[in-house]
Amino acid sequence: MSGRNVGDVEPALPYGGDGLDWALLAALSDARGVSGDEGRVRDIVAAAVAPHVDELWTDAIGNLYARKRGDRVAAVATTDLRGVGRPDAGANEPGSPAARSSEPAVPPLMVCAHLDEVGLMVVDIDGDGMARLAAVGGVLGAAVVGQRVRIGADGVVGVVGLPPAHATTDAVRARLPALEELRIDLGVTTRDAALALVQPGDGAIWDTATVDLGPTLLGKAMDDRAGCWALAMLLRSRYPMDIVGVFSVQEEAGTRGAGPAAHRLAPSAAFVLECGTTDDTPKDRDDTPVMRVGDGPAITVMDSSMVADVRLVRHLVATAEREAIRHQIRAPKGGGTDGGKIHLARRGVPTAVVSAPCRYLHGPQALVSKHDLAGMVALVRAALESWSPDIVAPIPFDRPGSPHSLNREVAP
Amino acid sequence: MTAAGDLSVDSIRFAALDGPTGAEGVVADALSAALAPFVDRVGRDALGNVIAYRRARIGNATGAGLSTAFGPDVVAAPRLLIVAPLDEPSMIVARIDPGGFLRFRPIGPAAGIDVRAWLGQPVTVHGRRPLAGAIGTRPPHVLELAVRDVTPEIDALFVDVGLGEADVRAAVAIGDTVTLRRPPERMAGGRLTGKAAAGGSLLAALVEIARRLAGAPHPCDFVLAGTAQGAFGHRGAAALGGALAADASDAARTLAVVLGMASAGQRGVDSTIALGAGPTIVRGPNVHPRLHGALIATAKRHEIPYQLEAAPGMTRTSASVLQVAGAGLACAVVQVPARYGGTAVETVAEVDVARLARLVAAFAAGLDGEIVAALQPALIAVGSTAADDRAAGKVTS
């Protein structure tokens, strides 16, 4: 294998990364929050960002919003944004400037990460006390069999067993079980005893405590607590313009939270902070690694949910080059993010995605690199600090060759 | 009842330790320390077995001079060996790949392993220092649909310790062992789950047996042993049995009770053996019928719930080697029922462990010269008298 490896990084983190709060990331990854049950994660995020933001609110479906007022909002407000901003943008939002003052509603930048994680849900209890389960998001039986899980608000311990090897046949062992073939053993042997412990609808998730491996972290829910963590780190800084950090719900259940959030905020542009799969481990096939752990934050050009706004991609790449931040372009491949909904909100929102590369995504032991995460925070922070509304100014179709033209490199 | 199920030592204490096959030192140290208060001496042999001795005692006297009480063929006090394995399912680093990925093999027979039990499991690599990691494979999201439900070959698996290749090579050598990193946890229903839930419980039971035996006089010598390399052909037990049964007369005064793990009924295993219904008392060719009968009688006398387990071939315990060690030993097998044996979610009912300890301790305490004498090589009369005896059903052994 070529390419940089996880540990081949400087012992001290670059980009001022030594002040990053890894304990917060571990706490976020360890918190249980499958799609629709994000409350525990939201509470941790809210407590972490509250000291650093100007307003913090939630909406009807559980998204958490954290507004950071820009230190040059007035200057931004005088910029002609009428072609981009919507007069009614966020007007009904409880914490919006428009709701409290006569300030013009300046469309903020939206930076989004999702609170939820893939996992399981208890759907029924059999007569023998074994719990039937279903996937919440993209979880395969292979990621569940032989695993210990925690269920519901109380974290009831359950195990998804498989027979001892000597009691099975080659044919049985050769096939990975589907989720519907599996059960969670709760330790009890009757339906009533099981129902006293868990209820249908309870979330169940791997019983994994995050381990710090030095240059890397191993935990269950790096997708997307790594993004939530990076956003929390970003909200410690102040930027020229209004930023609303959105901690969205139900990304794994079909990117359901981010769309309404983008609708409410009507942002001038959006950055999605994700945690995406790599294919950078040993393999026989000559497939793309998609991205590599250790090669820095990954900038998406295209995935199955969107084509990233080319102006934002350029801004991110230019920022990374200017700041000497190691980065990579995510190979265009399947997989979608909240960006798929955000970029279609209202009349369309210029949207880009920055991902932390992750091995063993959607499994019990996901691996991310501190170097990549430090780079992700540094890259997005620098991109926000150097933000100009001109980056996403309307493209004047009556002035070919203008600075805003997508073809400006080749334009006369 | 305590959370530990009436054991003087919590099973978690042993189930939390790492005892890879062939490198059981940490578990051996813990077992030695736990047994020491209850025995005359405890030591280690060449293969790493923990062997604790407790001489026979009548009243306050030690067993010295008792040998003549047991008839002319028995030159010393009867001796009871009680064994449980020290090790757990484990792996060995076979290759360090570019990128620092560790290729591994199971320790013990590679045939019949279940790779499914390893996918995505947290592990500890016992390198120059213990390294946490996980067993990785290619993520299913990038696989073609047709192969998503095909169990990968073991060659497609690797351990990822999250370090760069140079750091990995500095910390890990080929031949280092790997164990599952799944410490024990209590569940509802009095269950204990974890990567060595059954093995750790059996060691706790062994200590509990020693504690119970130390509380009363007994006419037998006891040898309590934690045996090494259970997953590798019971090599430790073979050496121990060889030592104890090297001499025919020593073998003749020695019985063995082997503690093991039974597969209880579970999804994919059609068995009536259940967790929480008591230890299993095994019948089959590895087990001497009289010892089996004596254990059943003990369970009934002490009203200890038990289950019968048939073992038509070799048991998966060290009885398979102890029985034929040296001059041969009469063996019995008592097992704790377990679900998901050998996996990271191995599960036992703690009440079964406590009952197992009570049963074996009661059997050991009640053991006297009579049963040992009954197991002795018997001269069978020849000629017409013998035929008459057989016809009359008088020859039973």
> Low-confidence segments of chain B, ≥5 residues, pLDDT <50?
60-74
Helix vs. strand class of chain A: alpha+beta
Low-confidence stretches of chain A: 1-5, 74-89, 95-104
Radius of gyration of chain B over all CA atoms, rounded: 23 Å
**What's the number of structural domains of chain B?**
2
Tell me the radius of gyration of chain A: 22 Å
Helical proportion of chain B, percent range? 25-40%
Q: Mean pLDDT of chain A, as a whole number? A: 88
Q: Can you identify the CATH class of the largest domain in chain B? A: Alpha Beta
By DSSP, the count of extended strands of chain B is 19
Per CATH, the superfamily of the largest domain in chain A is Zn peptidases
What is the CATH C-level name of the largest domain in chain A? Alpha Beta
In what range is the share of β-strand residues of chain A?
15-25%
Features:
heterodimer; A: 412 residues; alpha+beta; Aminopeptidase; Elongation Factor Tu (Ef-tu), domain 3; 2 domains; 6-stranded antiparallel β-sheet; 17 strands; disordered N terminus; B: 397 residues; 11-stranded mixed β-sheet; 11 helices; elongated
